[in-house]
TrEMBL record:
<dbReference type="Pfam" id="PF00646">
    <property type="entry name" value="F-box"/>
</dbReference>
<protein>
    <recommendedName>
        <fullName>F-box domain-containing protein</fullName>
    </recommendedName>
</protein>
<dbReference type="InterPro" id="IPR036047">
    <property type="entry name" value="F-box-like_dom_sf"/>
</dbReference>
<dbReference type="InterPro" id="IPR001810">
    <property type="entry name" value="F-box_dom"/>
</dbReference>
<dbReference type="InterPro" id="IPR006566">
    <property type="entry name" value="FBD"/>
</dbReference>
<dbReference type="InterPro" id="IPR053781">
    <property type="entry name" value="F-box_AtFBL13-like"/>
</dbReference>
<dbReference type="Pfam" id="PF24758">
    <property type="entry name" value="LRR_At5g56370"/>
</dbReference>
<dbReference type="Pfam" id="PF08387">
    <property type="entry name" value="FBD"/>
</dbReference>
<feature type="domain" description="F-box">
    <location>
        <begin position="31"/>
        <end position="64"/>
    </location>
</feature>
<dbReference type="InterPro" id="IPR055312">
    <property type="entry name" value="FBL15-like"/>
</dbReference>
<dbReference type="InterPro" id="IPR055411">
    <property type="entry name" value="LRR_FXL15/At3g58940/PEG3-like"/>
</dbReference>
Length: 428
């Protein structure tokens, strides 16, 4: 007789069964101890598997029927769906069957298939379900072909409701325009009361930025982090917040006005927002000027990889910057920021704009107009900047050997604990 394993051979010769010794159970698998666990533990166990796998546990026994409906984590991802022809309907069915009295700590819905199509109505319904049920993170990523033609019909919009209990929202809506709630509803509800982090990417607004400005400034009392990346339809962005600590704007196309008034803002990065605005403006100076208004006295890290706006209004400058990484701002703006106290800085990165003239004295970008404020002297060695804590200095691709030496000498003279210097001159 052939035996499947040593345990089966031993059990057969002794007249017993596998697992009968230690557990006292019957048959090969022994007793079903997992099914005897409390519901709370089963919900916790199922939170570590995919949602389709959790749903399929209903076929195990009557004990498991409906257990998945109370798991506080739901991830509806098209890559994990089994029936690709009816994925949106399958998602709707799971949401309808989920227990009505259970809060969801983590809900993610992603769908990027061309067929069957997901329009604005369905995406809005998913967002509405999340607004009622989610108490933690909500992640919605949908791609639609409906609104790509530019027609503002009813099916090309994703209407985002208020999330009074969610703490994090990540929204990706390619092909759909996003409409944010404009005012309080009849019941007096309408704030994102607990929201601390808001990420939006690959989407467009239809109101020139008025909606996102109003939501962040007046309806997110707890918002700490805001990220907008590859966002269209925002001509003016006005952010006034006492809670905001981190702000990142990347490829907010054709942004013409940026106003930031945040007393507790610690980190700010602006990448490729104003450069497209300036490149689209006629060379004769026509079109609206790009304007920035900055009031961030607590700012510790500033990263600017963008063109400089035509007008910069400095209301309240940072008082103690720790990291400054600048690649496009002209010297007079950097000098204004340089009035801050750098005595506590750990990292200080100052990268000047690309220049057409190989000298440190004159900074002129090849694409600048004749009246650009980049046309001015950059003699930092005459500035009163404290560098008492600077320990390492790295200067790369500097033009103008004589002027460069003056700048380096200035830093050495004003740095009391400088230990390492690295200098790389550009060859022209």
């Amino acid at each position: 007789m052939a035996y499947r394993c040593a345990a089966h051979k031993k059990a057969s010769l002794s007249g017993g069964s596998v697992g009968a010794g230690a557990g006292g159970g019957r048959g090969y698998g022994g007793p079903d101890r997992i099914s005897s666990l409390p519901d709370e533990l089963l919900h916790h166990v199922l939170s570590f598997v995919t949602t389709p796998e959790a749903v399929r546990t209903s076929a195990l026994s009557r004990r498991w029927v409906g257990v998945w409906k109370r798991v506080p984590r739901l991830h509806l991802l098209e890559g994990e769906a089994t029936n690709v022809e009816h994925i949106p309907d399958h998602f709707d069915g799971i949401l309808r069957r989920y227990a009505a009295d259970v809060d969801i700590a983590d809900l993610a819905i992603t769908y990027h298939w061309d067929w069957p199509e997901v329009d604005g109505d369905r995406a809005s319904a998913w967002a509405g379900f999340a607004a009622r049920r989610v108490t933690g993170r909500f992640d919605l990523a949908v791609t639609s072909q409906v609104g790509r033609g530019g027609d503002d019909d009813a099916h090309a919009f994703l209407d985002l409701p208020c999330f009074e209990r969610a703490t994090e929202i990540s929204l990706y809506s390619s092909g759909l325009a996003v409409r944010l709630p404009a005012a309080l509803d009849a019941a007096g509800d309408g704030d994102f009361t607990r929201l601390t982090k808001l990420q939006m990417s690959e989407l467009r607004f239809s109101d020139a930025g008025e909606g996102i400005s109003g939501v962040v400034s007046r309806r997110c009392p707890s918002l700490e982090c805001l990220e907008l990346e590859h966002v269209a339809g925002v001509e003016a962005l006005t952010l006034r917040s006492d809670s905001l600590q981190s702000l990142r704007l990347a490829s907010v196309s054709r942004l013409r006005r940026l106003e930031v008034e945040a007393g507790n803002l610690r980190r700010m990065r602006v990448e490729y927002c104003f450069d497209e605005t300036r490149s689209c403006r006629p060379w004769n100076g026509g079109g609206a000027a790009a304007v920035m208004r900055l009031s961030a006295p607590a700012l510790e890290e500033l990263g600017w990889e963008d063109a400089c706006p035509d007008e910069v209004e400095r209301i309240r400058l940072p008082t103690c910057l720790r990291e400054l990484a600048v690649s496009e701002l002209p010297s007079h703006i950097i000098r204004s920021i340089g009035q801050s106290d750098f005595s506590g800085a750990d990292v200080l990165k100052l990268t000047s704009p690309m220049t057409a003239t190989p000298t440190l004295d004159k900074r002129c970008a090849p694409c600048c107009m004749s009246n650009c404020n980049c046309h001015e002297l950059l003699k930092w060695w005459d500035e009163d900047i404290s560098l008492d804590s600077l320990e390492q200095l790295c200067v790369k691709h500097i033009w103008g050997e004589c002027e460069g030496k003056k700048l380096i000498y200035f830093i050495m003279r004003n740095s009391k604990v400088l230990k390492k210097i690295t200098v790389v001159f550009s060859r022209v």
